[in-house]
Amino acid sequence: QVQLVESGGGLVQPGGSLRLSCAAAGFTFDNAVMAWYRQTPGQERELVASISRGGLTHYADITKGRFTIARHNSNHTLSLQMNNLEPEDTAVYYCCRVHTMSFGQGTQVTVSS
Asked: With the C-alpha atoms ordered 61, 109, 21, 97, is the resulting torsion angle positive or negative?
């Protein structure tokens, strides 16, 4: 059973930083393509970034070079470092195992002064 538990969200001022983490269990994490998605009310969930099992990364244009996705196979975690946050980044962020499109419960990120 796939388990994905996100953490690290919160309230931050514009220009600030947050680091999200996702603890994964129930599947072979080392072999999994992983991703971060985000969703705002009334909108579809959108891809933020993905990372292959070999560490190749892909970023959506919305990140504008501000976000960094990383995988930590030693402890089965996925992270998303977010810098220079903007109010438009406010959303619930979800960790995703791409092969099965399994998501965690999400963590709320709010960027506001």
From this structure: negative
For residues 51 and 78, is the Cβ–Cβ distance under 8 A? yes
111: phi then psi, degrees, rounded to nearest 5: -110, 110
How many whole angstroms separate alpha carbon 8 and alpha carbon 55?
22
pLDDT at position 11: 98
Name the average pLDDT for the chain. Answer: 97
Q: Is 90 exposed, middle or buried (0-12, 13-18, 19+ CB in 10 A)?
A: middle
Strand boundaries in the chain, DSSP class E: 3-7, 10-12, 18-25, 34-39, 46-51, 57-59, 67-72, 77-82, 91-97, 102-103, 107-111
Per-residue pLDDT averaged across 43-65, rounded?
Answer: 95
Structure token pair of residue 47: 């891809």
